[in-house]
Amino acid sequence: MANINKAVKLGVFTLAIMNVTAVVSLRGLPAEAVYGLSSAFYYLFAAIVFLIPTSLVAAELAAMFQDKQGGVFRWVGEAYGKKLGFLAIWVQWIESTIWYPTVLTFGAVSIAFIGMDHPEDMLLANNKYYTLAIVLIIYWLATFISLKGLSWVGKVAKVGGMVGTIIPAALLIILGIIYLATGGHSNMDFSGSFFPDFSKFDNLVLAASIFLFYAGMEMGGIHVKDVDNPSKNYPKAVFIGALITVIIFVLGTFALGIIIPEKDINLTQSLLVGFDNYFKYIHASWLSPVIAIALAFGVLAGVLTWVAGPSKGIFAVGKAGYLPPFFQKTNKLGVQKNILYIQGAAVTLLSLLFVVMPSVQSFYQILSQLTVILYLIMYMLMFSGAIALRYKMKKLNRPFRIGKGGNGLMWIVGGLGFCGSLLAFILSFIPPSQISTGNNTVWFAVLFIGVIVVVAAPFIIYAVKKPTWVDPNSQFEPFHWEENNTQNTQSTQSAPKA
399 is in which domain, residue-wise? Predict the structure, then answer.
């Protein structure tokens, strides 16, 4: 038995690479390339105040509640009660729903560049109606496949992660090095300042989206028990994974900035254009369609996996009585069909914003900002909740603990994560100066109305929920404070009267 347990333990480097694969995505590199050398500052800053705190805090929370359902609903609910716990998992689900059109926009652009006619490819990639059609076709195809409950989807996603992210990232960096080593002209000014101009707030907005690049590291917390000596080796894996992630992002961004002038950088097209320019330089233009197919496959494989993923969390919570029976309906295979249909309807409505926004990249940017804002609400609840639980559940066993004794290090790590998230949250509302987002009224209206509607919805649902919503087959465990109240009530009832 000991040998079996030992066999399934993850090595430090293995876990680090798993975290890198889960987090790294190349589609956001153009957004940071416009900052030139100072982009490295943003990557490092976000890693210190967000990526590393997220990994460590999530690891402690995941280890604390490893035997109980709910994920972030459990973590926040234990600290602040059911309403805020429901808000946390609600925004986590909704932000992933809003994320689909942005990632599929990148997929549509990749597909456009599969052709060999570069000017025609760029024209097609910037066509709103083409992009809208591709986004909806691929999303609904992924939804219908998810409803079939196919087990091979996970395998496709693993291959897609390697073929569509890791290999292209390494190739982009190598091409940049070859280009500079052979005397290629750099469009990036490496003599510029490492530190950005903090006097211009609108210059910081695109940088706020960098937090979304690092989002998702909380998922790695579920593996904290799969590592030998987690209190020592899990932080090692976190720091190694963070370092590799930052190196990929920094060098990948530099590689794009070197080959594309800052004024020509486009949020949705520049990654493909960058590859195309490098391939022309080494006289291998035939590779452009190959890399476009690889990137498109990576995007589509990821979406195929995630379409059903986040909805499972809200589904489990819904069955515990937080959503009407309509949302709890499943098909014959046990897949949450109605939630997937509602999710699909939301993606379709959001995709129709193409018609309102002045360009594909402005649509891409505003949805990316809305995704960041919603996700950061969940993170602020998670960071502050972890600190609160040090006092509310001080006696609970913590297989992985930030700091050996006392709560000082948790205050530093959790406080850093909360303050970093709050800063990015505020900055995300400001329209960026680097891209045309059309009328500022539309920008603010979409963001403010979007946030108000999404945040208000779970409180309204909670206020009208009924006892009949609870699925009798749900095995959702009570919160610790519910168990304590029950025990106190029973002890009071059984105590002899004076």
Answer: 2-490
φ, ψ (nearest 5 deg) of residue 439: -70, 125
- The tens place of each residue's pLDDT in the chain, 498 residues long, gives 444 444 457 788 877 777 777 677 787 788 788 778 888 888 888 888 888 898 889 888 888 887 777 788 899 999 999 999 999 999 988 888 888 887 888 788 888 888 766 678 778 877 888 888 888 988 888 888 778 765 655 566 667 777 888 889 999 999 999 999 999 988 887 777 788 776 766 666 666 667 777 877 776 666 666 777 777 787 888 888 888 888 889 999 999 999 998 888 877 788 888 998 999 999 998 898 999 888 888 777 777 767 766 787 888 888 889 999 999 898 887 788 899 999 999 889 888 876 666 666 677 778 878 888 999 999 999 999 999 999 999 888 888 888 888 899 999 999 999 999 998 898 888 877 655 556 778 788 888 998 999 999 999 999 999 999 988 887 777 787 777 766 666 555 555 554
**Which CATH number do you get for residue 350?**
1.20.1740.10
Residue 96 included in any domain: yes
CA distances from 100 to 96, 344, 355, 367, 463 (A): 7, 10, 17, 10, 29
Q: Nearest to residue 364, comparing CAs of 114, 126, 111?
A: 126
Phi, psi of 471 (to 5 degrees): -75, 125
**498 in a structural domain:** no
Look up tokens 């926004």; give the residue: 357
Tokens of 336: 């949450």
Query: Model-level pTM?
Result: 0.81
Residue 497 lies in a domain: no
Contact 227, 73 (CB under 8 A): no
Q: What is the DSSP letter of 282?
A: T
Read out DSSP for 66-78?
A: TTSS-THHHHHHH
DSSP annotation string for 30-56: HHHHTTGGGHHHHHHHHIIIIIHHHHH
Query: How many Cβ atoms sit within 10 Å of the Cβ of residue 167?
Result: 14
In a domain, 496, yes or no: no
Domain count, the chain: 1
CA distance 1 to 4: 5
